[in-house]
Amino acid sequence: MTRTTRPTRSRIAWLAGCAVLLALAVLLSLAVGSRQIAPTEVMRALLHGGTSNDAEVVRSLRVPRTVIGILAGAALAVAGTVMQGITRNPIAEPGILGVSQGASAGVVCAIAFCGVHTLTGYVWFAFAGAALACVAVYVVAAGGHRGASPVKLALSGAAMNAFLASVVSGIATTDAHALDEFRFWQVGSISGRGTDVIGEIWPFVLAGLLLAGLLAKGLDALALGDDAARGLGHDAARLRVLGAVGATVLTGAAVAAVGPIAFTGLAVPHIARALVGSAHRWVLPVAALLGPVMILLSDVIGRVVFPPSEVPVAVMTALLGVPFLIALVRRRTVVAS
Amino acid sequence: MTRTESAAADTASARTATRPAGYAVARIGGASFLVHRRAVAVAGLLTVLLAAAVVLYLCVGDSFVSPVQVIDVLLGRPSPDELVVGTLRLPRLVVGLLAGAAFGVAGALVQTVARNPLASPDVIGVTHGAGAATVAAMSFGLVGHTTLPYVSVAGGLGAGLLVYAFAWRRGLHASRFVLVGIGVSIALGSLTQLFLTKGDYLVAQQAKVWLTGSLNSRGYDQAAPLALVLLVAVPAVLWAAWAQRGASFDDDTAVALGIRLDRMRLGLTLIGVVLASVATGATGPVDFVALLAPQIARRLTRTAQIPLLSSALTGALVVVVADLLARRLFSPVELPVGVLTAAVGAPYLMWLIARTRSRSGGSTS
């Protein structure tokens, strides 16, 4: 939000650099784990197939896991970018604002009360939950006469998180069958999700990303303030609604697939802005590349820290993301606004 | 107004020569105090309500026991319901009462010092710190069950210090403090998850039950350290409250009255953090009681300052009623009491936020 103009050439270089980084992260995600597989072996398994054990592990376990990580990472990072744009708030993020938890509570309710057991079924409940949480948190934070300051947004998000967590654990204690179904999904993790999950969520992720891309110009205008945006011919209210819809769809799809994962949507947009400036037509693609990098690297770290057990990716992103949040809060701009 | 209250004259005359409206004078021996009439009435009412809740709590359960029998058991008379009331329900009730009171006092202290209702121990990371430390100790089998309360106090203090250190930047800004607290809480929550995946399956199961904040199978073992800390802390706090009445004015006035604000604040915060941590050690994190109780108490007494005694009573009342509901609402399944307090407390927090007039970056004062 500070530096606005940058030579296009350096932006393209950063974009390419992020793509290379993503390729590296993908390779790591395919190669590292309780069974270490050499990169050459990974390449061979991908290109030529083969029936060796390594090839099996790569194709049936690690490829789906990695693809889901890429989808979820891109979705969450872009959702975070859009939320920060429409709220003009540096700490807006699906996890902190309780939107992820809303989607997750939606899924839990679908499983427990509506007898919905397929991803195609409960992705809609995830959208509904995310949308409700989104609206509730924003309405609460925007009350009072100074509007939604960072601290009010974060607090109402924290309250929403606590409330929904208590609803979920209430359901968990009273309904053992439902608990059995969502207990592994509820701690955000990208492992053990089958290939069918990919097939079911990619249309939603794609739609959300396209919507976010279409809003890039409008988000730039919103950054200048509502009046300026109006002067530039944008309808601020319509932009916010569309942005919220996009962020909700992205968050809902990601959560339905992998469970709630926080902080990807917080850290990535800030890193992206530091690299390519604040124009959203650059920030959005860079975030879409870096989000998967963060998820995949967190996942890889989670696989190796406590062998043989794996640490869920949501735990790792939170541990990596919180120092980032604190650094952000210590900067004067967040608190002064 | 009469000016015969000579014992309180040194402080009273510094502030105002006359007795403020709504106050009465209480004399104990040679000393006399200004007493807020409404506050006394509220404390009395809360005590009556609490006594009613206690009897109700002991009556209601899988088998109903008549109030007469309950009172017989409480007074130590022989009774056929000795087992159900005295052995099963009473220990659990005692833990709930003490933990609720501790949470209430802790919240009152921290909110008073921070002058911000949002800065309660459960928002700023103390309970999460106590939780993470306890789960770590349980999962790694570091210590025995008797030392767990100390571990939880250490965790709570550590988290409090961490938040303080991270939020300090040329002074302490209320909203930075709260934001850092939320961040640290999330990180500690994740660490807790990490420890849970690390530990033995059975231990993890145990730790998970503990983490939702439940009074189930809690007894005198947990109540003892809690009672001890309350016995030390509450008189200390009451004395401090009496000595520092001036601190509710703005800083300059208080300093002019000769109150060492920094030291007083640090001491009160420490006591608050210790109380919240010990209570968390006994019951697990029962969320939002520390936030709710002082606010309810203050709205009842309509005093400028948060009333300590009423906060303690409200805290105990909230926990006992919530646990009663948690036991019976979905019987035979029992909800953890923390689920219920969070379900009520979180919307209340949101309501507080919604009506905040953020004069200085979101702090309400």
UniProtKB/TrEMBL annotation, chain A:
<feature type="transmembrane region" description="Helical">
    <location>
        <begin position="95"/>
        <end position="116"/>
    </location>
</feature>
<feature type="transmembrane region" description="Helical">
    <location>
        <begin position="239"/>
        <end position="262"/>
    </location>
</feature>
<protein>
    <submittedName>
        <fullName>Iron ABC transporter permease</fullName>
    </submittedName>
</protein>
<feature type="transmembrane region" description="Helical">
    <location>
        <begin position="66"/>
        <end position="83"/>
    </location>
</feature>
<dbReference type="Pfam" id="PF01032">
    <property type="entry name" value="FecCD"/>
</dbReference>
<keyword id="KW-0813">Transport</keyword>
<dbReference type="InterPro" id="IPR037294">
    <property type="entry name" value="ABC_BtuC-like"/>
</dbReference>
<keyword id="KW-0472">Membrane</keyword>
<keyword id="KW-0812">Transmembrane</keyword>
<keyword id="KW-1133">Transmembrane helix</keyword>
<feature type="transmembrane region" description="Helical">
    <location>
        <begin position="122"/>
        <end position="141"/>
    </location>
</feature>
<feature type="transmembrane region" description="Helical">
    <location>
        <begin position="282"/>
        <end position="301"/>
    </location>
</feature>
<comment type="similarity">
    <text>Belongs to the binding-protein-dependent transport system permease family. FecCD subfamily.</text>
</comment>
<dbReference type="InterPro" id="IPR000522">
    <property type="entry name" value="ABC_transptr_permease_BtuC"/>
</dbReference>
<feature type="transmembrane region" description="Helical">
    <location>
        <begin position="201"/>
        <end position="219"/>
    </location>
</feature>
<keyword id="KW-1003">Cell membrane</keyword>
<feature type="transmembrane region" description="Helical">
    <location>
        <begin position="313"/>
        <end position="330"/>
    </location>
</feature>
From TrEMBL, chain B:
<feature type="transmembrane region" description="Helical">
    <location>
        <begin position="148"/>
        <end position="168"/>
    </location>
</feature>
<feature type="transmembrane region" description="Helical">
    <location>
        <begin position="223"/>
        <end position="243"/>
    </location>
</feature>
<comment type="similarity">
    <text>Belongs to the binding-protein-dependent transport system permease family. FecCD subfamily.</text>
</comment>
<keyword id="KW-0813">Transport</keyword>
<feature type="transmembrane region" description="Helical">
    <location>
        <begin position="177"/>
        <end position="196"/>
    </location>
</feature>
<dbReference type="Pfam" id="PF01032">
    <property type="entry name" value="FecCD"/>
</dbReference>
<keyword id="KW-1003">Cell membrane</keyword>
<keyword id="KW-0812">Transmembrane</keyword>
<feature type="transmembrane region" description="Helical">
    <location>
        <begin position="39"/>
        <end position="58"/>
    </location>
</feature>
<keyword id="KW-0472">Membrane</keyword>
<feature type="transmembrane region" description="Helical">
    <location>
        <begin position="333"/>
        <end position="354"/>
    </location>
</feature>
<protein>
    <submittedName>
        <fullName>Iron ABC transporter permease</fullName>
    </submittedName>
</protein>
<dbReference type="InterPro" id="IPR000522">
    <property type="entry name" value="ABC_transptr_permease_BtuC"/>
</dbReference>
<feature type="transmembrane region" description="Helical">
    <location>
        <begin position="306"/>
        <end position="326"/>
    </location>
</feature>
<feature type="transmembrane region" description="Helical">
    <location>
        <begin position="93"/>
        <end position="111"/>
    </location>
</feature>
<dbReference type="InterPro" id="IPR037294">
    <property type="entry name" value="ABC_BtuC-like"/>
</dbReference>
<feature type="transmembrane region" description="Helical">
    <location>
        <begin position="123"/>
        <end position="142"/>
    </location>
</feature>
<feature type="transmembrane region" description="Helical">
    <location>
        <begin position="264"/>
        <end position="286"/>
    </location>
</feature>
<keyword id="KW-1133">Transmembrane helix</keyword>
